[in-house]
Each structure stands twice: as C-alpha cells, then as structure tokens.
Design brief:
Elements: H1 2-42, H2 46-66, H3 71-74, H4 78-97, H5 108-111, H6 115-138, H7 142-160, H8 166-169, H9 172-209
Length: 210
C-alpha cells in the first residue's frame, strides 16, 4: 500500500517538476521579449517594440495554460514576475506611443494578468518614465518632460491607495517608496533644467544688448 502511495506521489512530483522547468523557460522568454521591447521604445522603434510585446503576450498565455491544475507552482513567483514585466512594457508602450495620453492604458483584465502583478508593473513604469523624462530634458522638450513627470506622480498617487499587506500586493509598498524617490529626483531635474534654460536665455538677451 505504501509503495503504491509513494509511486503516485512521485509521479505527481515528476509532472510538477517538468511543468515547472518548462514554465521557467517560458518565463525567461517573456522577460527577454519585454526588455527588448522596452529598449526599442526608448529608441522610438515602436514597430520592433510591438513585435516583442506581441511575442511576450503569446508566451504568457502559453505559460498560464501549462499550470492548469497546478496552482501551487503557478504561485511560486516566476509567473507573477513575467506578468509584471508584461504589464510594465505594455503600459509604457501605450504612454510613449500616445505621447502621454492615458485614456487607452491597458487594464489588467485586458492583459490577462493578476492585479498585484499589474500594480507592481505600474511601479516599474515610473523608473522607465524617469529615463524618458531625462531624454526629453536633453532634447530641451521641457513641456513634454513636465507632462510625463505628471504621469509619474499620478501613478504614484494611484499606488498609494493600495495600503494592504505585502501578502496581497506582492511587495507593492517597496515599489511605491522607490517610485516616490524617483519622482522627487526627476522633479528636481526638470525644475533645474528649466531654470538653467531660462538663465541661458536671459544671458543671451543681455549679451545681444551689449
């Protein structure tokens, strides 16, 4: 009897281990495609980003289908990480392509991701937007920089509403704290750059009068 039980358990574990290994491989594929898309977005290559996001979305559906009946390994962490990366890059794609308009932001239900993963992905978007704002500052696009700074602040405000235990939010509080720090730095960069530009303009006007 004990031998039969052991065989049954071993078969179950063998199946779970096989699914887990396959899931890890697909998860790494999703993360790779998302990061490729993010890099393409900062280079304004929306066509390449779209292809990578589409590939990541297909892989995510394949990943989730592998875990039917295996909720224990589904919640082991790597599926949620893949969902976070996918949420982050799809939201970033929408914001950059629509030049800061937020009406068409994809929802977690549209993306097919867990709510906690979506919120943590939003937290990571703040860091990506800081990078975009710094690029805008270098190009002296100060008005656009202020628009995206405002979006960063809006995301942080939204995340602040979810004051729940980490067991529910997946560690959202830490990302919320990090986003606040990034926003403060970015706000300082924007203000200083605008002031510097005003000073340079004033000095050129003064030189032209002398």
């Amino acid at each position: 009897m004990l031998e039969e039980i052991s065989i049954r358990i071993r078969d179950n574990f063998e199946t779970k281990d096989k699914i887990r290994e396959e899931g890890l491989k697909i998860s790494r594929e999703i993360v790779r495609e998302c990061r490729t898309a993010s890099f393409a977005l900062h280079g304004k290559n929306f066509e390449k980003a779209d292809l990578s996001i589409d590939a990541a979305g297909r892989a995510l559906k394949k990943l989730e289908s592998r875990f039917e009946g295996h909720a224990d390994i589904y919640h082991a962490g790597f599926v949620e990480h893949a969902q976070q990366e996918y949420s982050e890059v799809t939201v970033l794609y929408s914001l950059l392509k629509d030049e800061g308009k937020t009406q068409n932001l994809p929802s977690p239900d549209e993306l097919g991701v867990e709510y906690a993963a979506y919120l943590n992905g939003l937290g990571d978007v703040v860091g990506e937007l800081r990078r975009h704002v710094l690029d805008l500052i270098r190009g002296e696009s100060f008005e656009k920089a202020e628009v995206f700074l405002g979006i960063m602040e809006n995301i942080h405000a939204a995340l602040m509403d979810f004051d729940y235990p980490d067991a529910i939010t997946g560690g959202l509080r830490r990302k919320t704290d990090v986003s606040r720090s990034l926003i403060e730095k970015t706000r300082g960069d924007v203000v200083n750059s605008i002031q510097q530009k005003k000073l340079e303009t004033a000095m050129r006007r003064l030189e032209s009068r002398l």
